[in-house]
Design goal:
Length: about 375
């Protein structure tokens, strides 16, 4: 009996903690279930919110698509147009509108660009014959200086290229006859072009010095046989260097009656004033001798003519603010004017100076159109 009671006590003692633990766990279940329910409710709520957010996203995407469409429409309006903006016509530059083959230049720009407008009118045009030649010393103002008596040169006072005055002592010579020194003086004022003696040389009649007065020189031209009948003394000649940087006007002072043995040409001489010494002996020159002068019905300044591809000789005619290249046929020419046989009428306004500027403007505009 005692054994049964002991076993029952032990069993009851052992079961007590287990029941206690189970009771605590049972007490904890409602809270757990409540938390689970709350979590489940939150999950359902989050799901609903997520769905609502997804709907908002869809709406946002739809709105963005509409915005992009609107932007495309805007771009199509702003950038798809090929029409130039107002005030910027196609082909327009700082001078104004350009059309193919002509230039439009504003009146205020014409003077600034150095363009001069003139009127086609009758003018006196000379018939000229071209000549070629050289600048030479004026043989009438050249001096070859010699010693009066033979002897030994004791002193030389001047050098080559030096300017001397009339009466200036050039050298001292001891005479062989008298054994006295005497002075060799400059017979004219001018420049020493040759010095052919030194101290100790023998003066025996040869030229010691050559002096030339370069304040005037000769323009010496060759006249070919085919032109000889037209060229006469007294005719006016326009003279210029090959580069055209030096020009002068003169008249034929001498026309030699004989022909040059080498060239078979006549020699025409123009005495050319040379106070600034710009004409140097030895220079190659050209001249236009006027053999006749008549009135041309239409003439323009020589500077008005330009050559353009496919058009040939042109004159730029002014019509309003436009400058149009007009092909012309030319006739007689002189140093200042050109006769126009065809292509221009009296009274028409044309570019007399600065025609190359208008030509460049047209070529620039044409090149722009081609691109």
């Amino acid at each position: 009996m005692k054994h049964y009671l002991l076993l029952a006590a032990i069993f009851g003692w052992l079961m007590t903690p287990i029941i206690t633990v189970s009771a605590h766990a049972a007490d904890a279940y409602p809270e757990t279930f409540e938390k689970h329910d709350e979590a489940e409710e939150r999950a359902h709520a989050d799901g609903d919110e997520h769905n609502e957010h997804g709907e908002e996203t869809d709406n946002h995407e739809d709105h963005g698509h509409d915005a992009h469409q609107e932007q495309d429409d805007h771009d199509g309006h702003g950038h798809g147009s090929t029409k130039p903006e107002e005030g910027h016509e196609e082909g327009e530059d700082e001078h104004g509108e350009h059309e193919e083959g002509k230039a439009e230049i504003a009146p205020e720009s014409v003077q600034r660009m150095g363009i001069v407008i003139n009127t086609a009118a009758p003018a006196m045009v000379s018939q000229t014959i071209p000549l070629t030649g050289r600048i030479t010393l004026n043989q009438n103002t050249r001096a070859d200086v010699r010693a009066r008596f033979e002897g030994i040169v004791r002193n030389v006072n001047v050098n080559l290229g030096e300017r001397v005055e009339k009466g200036q002592v050039l050298a001292v010579v001891e005479s062989n006859e008298s054994l006295q020194d005497y002075n060799v003086k400059a017979p004219i004022s001018g420049v020493v072009l040759e010095r052919n003696t030194n101290i100790g040389d023998v003066a025996n009649g040869d030229v010691l010095f050559v002096i030339a007065d370069l304040s005037n020189v000769w323009a010496k031209f060759h006249v070919f046989p085919r032109d000889a009948d037209y060229v006469q003394s007294g005719q006016r000649v326009s003279i210029h260097t090959l580069e055209g940087d030096k020009t002068a006007m003169g008249k034929i002072d001498m026309l030699f009656p004989t022909a040059d043995e080498l060239t078979q040409t006549q020699i025409a001489i123009i005495v050319l004033p040379n106070p600034e010494r710009i004409w140097k002996p030895g220079m190659t020159i050209e001249g236009d001798v006027r053999v006749a002068e008549t009135e041309a019905q239409i003439a323009v300044k020589a500077s008005a003519l330009q050559k353009m591809e496919e058009l040939g000789d042109v004159v730029f005619v002014k019509e309003g603010n436009s400058f149009i290249p007009r092909p012309v046929k030319t006739g007689r020419k002189n140093d200042g004017y050109v006769e126009i046989i065809q292509g221009l009428k009296a009274g028409e306004a044309y570019v007399s100076d600065g025609s190359f500027i208008v030509k460049s403007d047209i070529l620039k505009a044409t090149a722009a159109h081609s691109h």
